[in-house]
Design goal:
With about 180 residues, this protein is an all-alpha fold. Helices cover about 75% and strands about 0% of the residues. It has 2 domains: about 80 residues, Rna Polymerase Sigma Factor, Chain: A (Orthogonal Bundle); about 100 residues, Winged helix-like DNA-binding domain superfamily/Winged helix DNA-binding domain (Arc Repressor Mutant, subunit A, Orthogonal Bundle). The longest helix is centred in the first third of the chain and has 24 residues.
Length: about 180
């Protein structure tokens, strides 16, 4: 069997988890697609380096993770990110209430420290097991459990703080525009 066919077979088995991971990591559909395509290109180029077929998921997530964090590091030296414009690009696939909740969730996720955010995304959104997260993050099981637990607690507090803050008129109008664009 050709290397490309084997790669496709392994990728199809991990596609859904991988896409969820990319989307949760970037918080943006377009960036998630870019990250996924860049990762697949790198993975195909280096597929011959995999020693164990069962490590394909970790191989794929590891590449995505490195590409994402390298991009973050490089972007520190670039222009200003316009967060208001990025919030106007919302998926049409959900209802307005859910879209607002997702925006709030991703805003709160972005406020978490990187290691906690990644652990929560991998476990809660992408559905990876704790052992798989150990392999991806290259830390012990207790460290992953601690990161997931602390990440959940901080996220819970951030979300509770978000609920207690009433929306300003400007924020309500912005949210109404986002929902109207859907």
């Amino acid at each position: 069997m050709q290397s490309q066919e084997v790669f496709e077979r392994f990728y199809k088995a991990n596609h859904e988890q991988f896409i969820k991971y990319c989307h949760a990591l970037t918080g943006n559909h377009n960036d998630a697609e870019d990250l996924a395509s860049d990762t697949l290109l790198k993975a195909m180029e280096n597929f011959h380096k995999i020693r164990k077929p069962e490590s394909f998921t970790s191989f794929l997530i590891g590449i995505a993770r490195r590409l994402y964090f390298n991009k973050l590091r490089r972007n520190k030296f670039w222009g200003i990110f316009n967060e208001q414009d990025s919030k106007l690009i919302v998926s049409n696939s959900t209802n307005p209430d859910t879209s607002l909740e997702i925006i709030i969730l991703y805003d709160c996720l972005a406020k978490l420290p990187v290691k906690l955010r990644e652990a929560v995304i991998l476990f809660e959104i992408s559905g990876f097991s704790l052992k798989e997260i150990c392999t991806i993050q290259q830390v012990g099981l207790s460290a992953v459990k601690q990161r997931v637990s602390r990440g959940r607690m901080k996220l819970k507090h951030l979300l509770q703080d978000q609920e207690s803050v009433p929306l300003s008129k400007e924020k309500k109008n912005e949210n109404a525009r986002i929902i109207a664009c859907q």
